[in-house]
Design a protein that fits this description.
The structure holds 2 protein chains of 2 kinds. By secondary structure, chain A is mostly beta strands. Chain A has one domain (9-93). Chain A is built from no helices and 10 strands. Chain A has strands spanning 9-11, 18-23, 31-33, 36-37, 39-40, 64-66, 73-78, 84-86, 89-90, 92-93. In chain A, a hairpin with a 2-residue loop joins β3 (31-33) and β4. Chain B is α/β, with parallel strands linked by helices. Chain B has 3 domains: 2-216, Rossmann fold (3-Layer(aba) Sandwich), CATH 3.40.50; 287-397, Luciferase, Domain 3 (Luciferase, domain 3, Roll); 399-498, ANL, C-terminal domain (GMP Synthetase, Chain A, domain 3, 2-Layer Sandwich). Chain B has a 9-stranded mixed β-sheet with strand order 2-1-10-9-11-12-13-14-15, sandwiched between helices. Chain B has a 4-stranded parallel β-sheet with strand order 4-3-5-6, with helices on both faces. In chain B, α3 (56-67) links the parallel β3 and β4. The chains are: A mainly beta, B alpha/beta. The A-B interface holds A 6-7, 9, 20, 22, 41, 61-64, 75, 77-79, 96-103 and B 1, 4-5, 8-9, 136, 138-139, 141-142, 164-165, 168-169, 172, 174-179, 186, 196, 199-200, 203, 207, 209, 233, 235, 261, 263, 265, 285, 287, 289, 297-298, 301, 303-304, 329-330, 357.
Chain lengths: 103, 500
């Protein structure tokens, strides 16, 4: 996958999940959802791709997902059945840090 | 994208209450989609708006994003010529105008003018009957989301550029998606052309918090609407809070059982007003937000705990934090620099510089004002205390240069405001043959109180170096503020020049 930039939008090839990149490290990453590589919004899914049972815990709307190193962060802006992973390791939910509303 | 997420997460919730009417998130999305189509069909390059707080405000904002055009909220206080000049800069524009203004503007050379009534009727009919617009919403993070003309207190208005990446970064950095409870609501009374008005719409939609709009601010209308709509949070500029407090004169409490939080910003909050407010609203959490148009709104916050700790403290160092704007948001860095651009340590005054993803620092036609490594010079003076609390001392351009010495008006105003007889004070520089500039103070006395120039001059000398004591004093019934609470120093100076 090409170098990711904050603001990039991606979607799952096998479920309804869509994400936006919040932060990404330099270099190539293998981002997947439901076991299949994430696609650009305008890319067509490969034929025959299906949701892997090992990666089907689902993604949640409005949640942020991070890798263990903490340098990759994705915002889920459409939920789906697949779960997100990077280079084979599942991404985890980022803990919420509520701020007082300022407006 | 933010509105799409809200619609998916809680589409049936009420997004907006305005003049007793409700609009849900999915209705708002549908209306924005229909409006986007109409704006696109007009061939316009900008989606301008000249309106008070009405449903057209969020609809136009989201429709513009959807159509891939910048939203341009304009001040309804602009006179004909001023408005013409701004519209020329954004031509060709689609302009939604409040009904009384749209009549005189129809046929304008720079814009296709639509009255708010027509705009809303069309968007809502289309949304109900027309085909829903494809919701895959391409968002180019580098595209311009909003153009905001600054108040231009120093000259012709500049158009501050906020791109989607700045606004989205601000929202994601400060709001948790869907964090509001179903009954939460926020009262929006700042005008739609103020960055706080934009931020209020975006934050509320992302949080799932109902927006209650107040068309035109008056303290009585604000209190009544807050009570009727069971408002839980509100943002006000300091002048508004001060007028609300005045309107509650003689009462023990505000009688707003649902109100949990008030945030304020957009100008300097007099210490006496916030102290009084905290007594009148003992159960309300107060937050002071400091930000600029060019930084996508808030960059630093003094939170409710800070307010309570400062108000309860006996130590002067902690107590004075009530007059600070707190600490920077996560993701925002603040540095104070001297005139040579070098960072200075805690306690030393200088110019506030900020850096972060939400900082735009860009004006249309002038490019980016960001300096090396993304730092934006705010032109605000200030200092940090040892624990990183930020104190603002006003615009650097307002600094008085007296005999080669730089004097900050804010510092002198603070001392005057501490005097028991002083309700409000403005300090400006006036031309002086001997010193270049002399310090002049315009003072508003509290009702029933008296103090003369000699007494106030002596008071300042007790607290500050004598060069800071105003040479001239003038007493007035009130000071000139604009509608968002900014002191109009230019007018104070002009008026002093006329009455020697």
């Amino acid at each position: 996958m090409a170098q990711l930039k904050p603001g990039n939008q991606l979607r799952s090839a096998v479920c309804d999940t869509k994400v936006m990149v919040i932060a990404a490290p330099a270099g190539d990453l293998e981002l997947t959802c439901g076991g299949a590589p994430l696609l650009g919004l305008d890319e067509d899914p490969p034929t025959g791709a299906s949701l892997s049972p090992d990666a089907s815990e689902g993604s949640q709307l409005g949640k942020r997902y991070v890798n263990e190193a903490g340098d990759l962060e994705l915002l889920c802006n459409n939920p789906g059945k697949g779960s997100l992973a990077c280079d084979g390791s599942a991404l985890s939910l980022k803990g919420a840090k509520p701020l007082p509303a300022s407006d | 994208m933010l509105l799409e997420m809200a619609t998916q997460g809680f589409g049936d919730r009420v997004a907006l209450r305005s003049e007793g009417e409700s609009l849900s998130y999915s209705e708002l999305l549908q209306a924005a989609g229909a409006a986007a189509q109409r704006i696109q069909d007009s061939g316009a390059q900008h989606a301008a708006l000249l309106d008070v707080n009405s449903p057209a405000v969020p609809i136009n904002l989201f429709a513009a994003a959807w159509a891939g055009l910048p939203a341009v909220p304009l001040s309804y206080r602009l006179t004909g010529d001023e408005l013409d000049a701004l519209l020329e800069r954004v031509a060709p524009a689609h302009l939604v105008a409040e009904p009384s203004r749209s009549r005189e503007l129809v046929g304008h050379a720079s814009a296709e003018v639509v009255s708010r009534t027509d705009f809303l009727a069309h968007a809502q009919t289309q949304a109900r009957t027309g085909e829903a617009r494809e919701t895959d919403w391409p968002m180019d993070p580098d595209a311009i989301a909003v153009l905001l003309f600054t108040s231009g207190t120093t000259g012709a208005p500049k158009a501050a550029v906020l791109r989607h990446k700045h606004l989205v970064s601000y929202i994601l950095g400060s709001v948790e998606f869907g964090a509001a409870a179903e009954e939460d609501s926020t009262l929006v009374c700042v005008p739609p052309y103020h960055v706080a008005g934009i931020a209020a719409v975006l934050s509320s939609v992302y949080a799932g918090r109902r927006i209650v709009q107040l068309q035109n601010f008056s303290p009585e209308a604000w209190l009544e609407l807050a009570r009727e709509e069971r408002v839980s949070t509100a943002f006000v500029v300091p002048t508004m809070l001060s007028r609300i407090v005045e309107a509650l004169e003689g009462r023990d409490s505000a009688d707003l059982p649902h109100l949990r939080a008030i945030s304020y910003g957009g100008g300097k909050m007099p210490l006496a007003v916030i102290e009084r407010s905290m007594r009148l609203f003992p159960d309300v959490a107060f937050t002071n937000a400091y930000g600029l148009t060019e930084t996508s709104s808030t960059i630093s916050l003094l939170g409710p705990d800070d307010h309570r700790a400062a108000a309860a403290s006996q130590a002067a160092k902690e107590r004075r934090r009530l007059a600070s704007v707190g600490q920077p948001l996560p993701g925002v860095e603040v540095e104070i620099r001297d005139e040579d651009g070098k960072a200075v340590p805690a306690g030393v005054r200088g110019e506030i510089h900020v850096r972060g993803e939400q900082v735009s620092g860009e004006y249309l036609g002038r490019g980016s004002l960001l300096q090396g490594e993304g730092w934006f010079p705010t032109r605000d003076g200030g200092w940090l205390d040892e624990e990183g609390y930020l104190f603002i001392e006003g615009r650097i351009d307002d600094v008085i240069v007296r005999g080669g010495e730089n004097l900050s008006p804010g510092e002198i105003e603070d001392v005057l405001l501490d005097h028991a007889a002083v309700a409000d004070a403005a300090v400006v520089g006036v031309p002086d043959e001997e010193w270049g500039e002399a310090v002049a103070a315009v003072v508003v006395l509290k009702p029933g109180c008296s103090a003369d120039a000699d007494e106030l001059r002596g008071w300042v000398k007790q607290h500050l170096r004598s060069s800071r004591a105003p040479e001239r004093f003038a007493f007035r019934p009130e000071l000139p503020y604009n509608e968002t609470g900014k002191l109009l120093r230019r007018r104070v100076r002009a008026e002093l020049a006329e009455t020697p």
